Every structure is written in structure tokens, then in C-alpha cells.
Amino acid sequence: MKDTSSVPVSSTSTSLRSTDALQPSLGASLLASPDGLTHAYRAPRNAALLGSLVMAGASLHGQATSNEATNGDNPIDLPPERVQDDQVQLKSPKFTLPLRDVPQMVNVIPAEVFEQQQATSLRDVLRNSPGITFQAGEGGSAPGDNLFIRGFSASNDIFVNGFRNSAQYSRDSYNLEQVEVAKGPSSAIGGRGTTGGSVNLVTKSPYQRDGYNGSASFGSADQKRFTFDANQVVDAEKGIAVRLNTMWHEGGVPGRDAVQNEGWGIAPSIAFGLGERTEAVVSYEHAEQDNIPDFGQPGALASGSDVPRSNFYGLVNRDYEKIESDVVSGEIRHNFGEGLTLRNLSQYSKTSRDAVVTSPRFVDNDASTGLVRRNDVKQQDREFEMLGNQTNVTWDFATGSVVHTLVSGLELTREEYTNYGRSHDATLQPTDVYNPDPYEPWEGTTGRNGSVVKGTGDTIALYAFDTLKLTDHWSVTGGLRWENFDAEVENSDPTVDDLQREDDMVSWRAALLYKPVTSVTLYGGASTSFNPAGESLTLSTGGGRGGTAANNPNIEPEETRTYEVGAKWEPAGKGFMTGVSLFRTEKTNARTRLDNDEPYTLSGEQIVQGIELSVSGSLTEKWSVYGGYAFMDTDVKESRNTEEEGHELAYAPEHSFSLWTTYQIDPKLQVGLGAQYSGNYYYSTTAGDDTVPDNTEYWLFNAMVSYSVTENIALRFNIENLGNEEYIERGYGGHFTPGETRNYTLTASFSY
Fold first, then answer.
1. Contacts of 451 (CB under 8 A, 6+ apart)
2. CA–CA gap between residue 559 and residue 551 (Å, rounded)
3. Mapping DSSP to helix (H, G, I), strand (E, B) and coil, where does residue 727 land?
4. C-beta of residue 560 within 8 angstroms of C-beta of residue 586
């Protein structure tokens, strides 16, 4: 049996004077400590602004490095990071391999990158990952983090520290340590859904050093934002530390009239036993938003219109969006020695969103009228709750010459979705498309009408994954997950039947790895996913247009499989990583129907295949990069609707690209430049070629310069959309949200 008892579950941070030993990855660094053990250290927030570290661009394929030239002789204390076999791992305990050897394209976006970019929303953070697009909100979905990954909806595939977070709203980045984007079907890891991939948000937690960081930002559209991040060691001997993150922001949206966003958040956490065999972390986060939401402009204006992009067709005196979210998490981890570790995680989350939004449509859906109606109001009054527990056992052992890393676990989750019916009682005259008045009086009322629809989803899952190191060059990895998902929907209307569907599903993943040299990993693998009818906690036997709905409880789950081959290269000691992945994803029984009057059947087939490249880390001691490129060839191969067959998937641009690079000119001055490209894409699989909006294809360029005024105080200036490009940030057939115009932000920060 392999004895790993001498390796701590988490390392203990120390002060560092020589940064040459640092081999960072994913915004973290590895260091051989005096005790001979390998420890990992995460770079502190705003480190780049202080000139103490070169930008830590990173992904699964990428690493960053700190730089002695930018650090001088100042000691740096960095928080700990979990490591295994000298490699930083993904946060999910279900991944048994170091990041470099995970046989899947996973982009890990560290806080250092999105803080340098002044990316304050999850949506902006995810623009660093190619192949992701965003849909505008509609009656059934909020205009928030409504994303597509590789052409498949992933709005239900957002996780917080490994637990599903299905609430529909715009998330802030202030309490995020890193964002992990796993590409391709992965129900074996994440459960139902995850057809195109999943997003895991890793929140900040205490570490073993006192640290205090804060920032104040002022920008275009009267934007103001303040953050504070404090970590305090309470008892170093017992490994007790507390951390507090807070944020407040207010301001408009550059290039948009009347739209206003305001929010605040607070996230305390406490850790016990850091660096010991038994660790426990308890965290809580509360956040609120009070916004004037934006559904943008009528879809007919998306291409070739002379209507000002700033025009807002909602009503300031009626439209609103109020969001409250709470997340409580607890984790306890014990290292028994002999390679055996037990980890138990619990989480409760609740998010409510109450919103009244004007959906801009032309009168009679005819642009020639020149009038936009204001009575098409979307009211969304919803609550999402989740209570979950995961128990994972990791065991390193050997059978003969074969070394195993086995992870097995049990997951229990209850999710609830409550949708309150609402009504309003006033009518309004339409407004001129060229000259709308968002401040027009409104004297009506709006509120709940007594109807309630409640959906519940219970998940019981068992899983096991094993990685077998056969030789120094060859390994195999794989696993199975069995999941029981029971969805029920109750309606307060006694004339509407309650609905229920229960599915037992098995998903798997497997891969073969070959390492010709330590720094190179070649792999080939496959995995599966499934989409049950009630995956969004909604079920229906209607459909609104005569046929049955896609979430009909009589429909079996959709199934998807993917094949992927790839290579990753991480030169030893260079702080740099790059990778390439060729993939083919097949949804083999997609829901399809002839027209809106016909029930769905599972007779469709959809294909997404392509290539994705990733590069990140330090090319030199002063020059760092983080970026990627994705090519996707999508096809509705089979469908009962002949208009769909041969059509591309919606929200799937053929080409997408992102790059963020920084250069340290001298110990105090750093500059950065970013570029993003999105090819155009359809909003539906039946849209004609002439319906593709020109502005879904765009180039964006951003720039940053930061200067360390003193050892502890820095200034940063960001310019976004340098070329003042007109583009569609979020699109939909009926309306679209224009992207922000050229805008500026000045940030002052401190770090002690």
C-alpha cells in the first residue's frame, strides 16, 4: 500500500523570499519547503497591482509564475492550496488526477486574471473561455447567467463549490477564488445535464496568514465599486483563521439609457485545523441586488438599424429587479494516513428573484409601425432552494505494481423551485422607437395573484472513480455514477394535475493516458451525460401551442456522449502550459417534433465537433498570457422538423477566441491587453440564413495599465471596448441586449 500519510491534505503557508522556486498553477504556486514536502501557495488578491507577482494566467493547461523582478526582496506570504503529486488539482474531489493529466479540456480562470480585467460579473469572467455564449432573458429565463457551452444550454449547470446552483440571476465575482469550466458531457462528475459542460465557482476561504486587501473603483456611467478582503489568523498553532469578503457597487451601464445596477455582498468564513490531519471550514455568503433590468431592443433592430443603441424601452417607474441570495457551506476533511482521506461537504442555498421587465416588441410585431409596445411585461417572482450533502472517500493504494487513486462517494440533494404568479393592471401606449421616454409615469399596480407552481427534485447518487498508474508512461482512469432523480411539480390550481417523473440513470467516463516525458500528457477518452425531462424542476403536459412540452413527464431522458483526444505540455519549472483538444459530442436521442402541434419524440440527433486550444502562464519572467481558441462544427443531423435537419445548433459560433496578456515593464509598471472574438450564430435551429444578426460577430479589445505607488498601494486604469464596437452581448429571437460601449475604470487598491 502506498503510504501518503506524510503528505498533508493542505500545506502550511510560509513567507517566501526567493520566488525562483515557485511553480504556480491555476493562480497558485508550488514550493519545496524546508521540510521536504511539497506545498502550494495561492497568490493574494491585487498582487499584480502591487507589482509583486507577474500575472498568474492559468487554466487546466496553464500556469502562472511569480517573478522576483517584480517582487524585489519583499517577503510574500501566500495562502495554501491542496496539492497531490506536485500538481495543483481541481477543487472537486472527484477529479483524481493533477490538472495537467485530467483527460478533458477544463479552463480554470483565476481571480488574478479577472481582477486585472475589472471583470466583476460571472458573465464577464466566462468570456475568457472560448465556446461560451449568452442568451437574452425571456419569460422563462432571467437575463443573467443564461449561458450555452459548445451549443448546449448550461444555465442549470452552474455549481458553487461542487453543488448545483440553478438560480437564474447575474452573479458577482467578488468572492470567487477561481472559476472552473469543464468542457463536454460530464454527468459522471456533475450529475444530470452538463451536456456541453459545466461551470464550478470556487469561493474564497481562510488561509494561514494575516492579509488585508481592498479596492475602490470609479468608472464610466457613474459606476462605483468597493471591495474589502481580510484574512486573520486567530490561532496559528491550531490552524484557526477567519476571512471576510465584502463588496458594494452602484452604477449604470455604458451605452445604455436608464439601466441601473446596485448591489452588495458579505461573505465571512472560518477554518479550523489548517495544515492538520483534520480540517473544517464553514462559510456563509449573503448578497443583494436592486436593479433596473434591461431586455434591450427589439430583435428587428439587431442588424443595420439607425436607431440609437442606447435607447431603453422599459419604464423606470415600473421595471425593477430585486435579488437576494444566501449560501451556507460546511466542509470537514480528515486524513487517516495510509493514503485514506474522508471529505464531507454540506451546503444550503436560497436565491429569490422578483422582477418586472419590459420585453421590447414592435406593435403587431411590425417594425414599420415605428412603435414599441410597453404592455409586454415579463414578471418573474421565483425562489430556488438547495440542500445537499456529499461524502467522498479518497484512497491511494497499490495492487502489485499498479498504483490506484480511488474516489468513491454518496451525494444527497433536494432542490426546490417556487414560481409565484403575478399580474399587473395598467395599460400603456406604445412608444416611439427613436425617442422612447423611460421616465414616463406609470400608475398601475403589480403583485402576486395567488397562483403558485412548485417543483421539487431529489437526487441520490453513488459514484466511484479510479486512476490506475500502470507504468511510468501509461495510466487509465474512469468511473461510474448511478443517480436517481425524482422530480415533482405541484400547482396551486386544483384543476391542474400534479406531475412526477423518476429516473434511474448511469453515466460514465474513461480515458487512457500516455506520458512520453513528464511534461507531456497525451490522452484519449469518452464520457456521457443525460438530460431528464424534469431537470429544470419543471414538468408540463401542455406546451402552449397545442403539442406536448419538452419537459413532458412521459419523455425518457436525452443521452449524450463525447469522444476527446488531446495533448498538454507543461515545461518543467517554466510556469507555462498549453494544450489542444479534438472533440466530438453526439446527442443521440434529442427531443424533436414535426411542428408545434405535435408531441415531442426522442428521434433527433445533434453533433458538435471541433478543436480547442489553450495557452497560459509566463512566456518570460515579465510576459504572461491567458487565452484560448475554439472551432465548432455543429449539425442537427436528424430531426422530425425538416427545417432543422442540416442546420447549425443555436448559440454556437463556428469560431471564438480570447486572449489576455500582461507585460511587466519595470517593478512598478505593468500593462495588459486583451482581445475577444465571437463568430456569428443563430438564435434557433430553424432560423433562416438571413436572420443571423451581424452584430453577433465582433472583436473586442481591452487594455490595462497598473502602477505601484508604494509597496502597499497601487493604481490601475482599465479601458474596455477600445474600438467602441457595436455588438450583441446577449441575443434572442425577440430582442437583444447591446454590448457596452467604450468605457473606463480607475481603481485604487491596497494590500497588507
1. 420, 421, 491, 492, 493
2. 15
3. coil
4. yes
Torsion of CA 503, 200, 606, 550, to 10 degrees: 50
> Furthest-apart CA pair in the chain: how many Å?
80
pLDDT at 159: 95
Rg of the chain over all Cα atoms, to the nearest angstrom: 25
- Rounded Cα distance between 195 and 103, Å, is 17
Closest CA to 721 of 255, 260, 384, 330: 255
Tell me how far apart the alpha carbons of residues 294 and 301 are, in angstroms, rounded to a whole number.
15
Compute the distance between CA of residue 308 and CA of residue 68 in angstroms, rounded to an integer. 50
pLDDT in tens, 353-387: 999 999 999 999 899 999 999 888 888 899 999 99
Collect the ranges in the chain with pLDDT lower than 70.
Answer: 1-89, 93, 96, 137-143, 543-548
pLDDT value at position 418? 96
What residues pair up with 528 in beta bridges, in sequence order?
A: 561
Is 650 in contact with 617 (CB distance < 8 Å)?
Answer: no
Would you state the cell numbers that stand for residue 526, as one nine-digit string? 469518452
pLDDT of residue 543: 58
Can you tell me the distance from the alpha carbon of 740 to that of 724, in angstroms, rounded to the nearest whole number? 8
Burial grade of 477 (CB within 10 A; 0-12, 13-18, 19 or more)? buried
Written in H, E and C, the secondary structure of 584-641 is: EEEEEEEEECCCCCCCCEEEEEEEEEEEEEEEEEECCCCEEEEEEEEEEEEEEEECCC
Q: Is 284 exposed, middle or buried (0-12, 13-18, 19+ CB in 10 A)?
A: middle
Q: Would you give the distance in Å from CA 374 to the centre of its chain?
A: 33
CA distances (Å), origin 107, targets 178, 311, 364: 10, 36, 45
All residues at 6 or more sequence positions from 84 whose CB lies less than 8 Å from its CB, including other chains: 7, 98
The number of C-alpha atoms within 13 Å of 318 and in the hemisphere containing its C-beta is 30
Closest CA to 396 of 162, 104, 97, 189: 97
